[in-house]
């Protein structure tokens, strides 16, 4: 998912968009090296070393990756279990369009 995430961050750099990642790697020190190597520039939280960590439990994540698109009002507009680049992009575009339309009023 890292290449797709990097492309989203770059493409939406001038938009009101934030990407937040959650990582379930067991070894936090090794994860830091991966973040550097993969050029992860967005915030990425550690899930306590496994898929049953506190973040995945709180968000009821049942598979990896799970993708949420949350709009500016905090409403979950899209959820996908498994990679879904087209669905993710469509949901982001719709959320940005709603935000822009709302700002014109």
What does this structure look like?
It is built from four helices and four strands. With about 100 residues, it is α+β, with helices and mostly antiparallel strands. The mean pLDDT is about 95. The protein has helices at about 1-10, 30-35, 55-60, 85-105, and strands at about 20-25, 45, 65-70, 75-80. It starts with a helix and ends with a helix. The strands form two sheets. It has a two-stranded parallel sheet with strand order 1-2. A two-stranded antiparallel sheet has the order 3-4. It has one domain (about 1-105): Glutaredoxin (3-Layer(aba) Sandwich), CATH 3.40.30.10. Helix content is about 40%, strand content about 20%. It is globular.
Helix content: 40-55%
CATH superfamily: Glutaredoxin
- Rg computed from alpha carbons, rounded to a whole number of angstroms: 15 Å
**What series of H and E elements makes up the topology?**
HEHEHEEH
Distance between the termini: 36 Å
How many domains? The number is: 1
Write the layout of secondary structure elements.
Elements: H1 2-11, E1 20-23, H2 28-37, E2 43-46, H3 54-58, E3 66-70, E4 76-81, H4 85-103
Parallel strand pairs: 1-2
Antiparallel strand pairs: 3-4
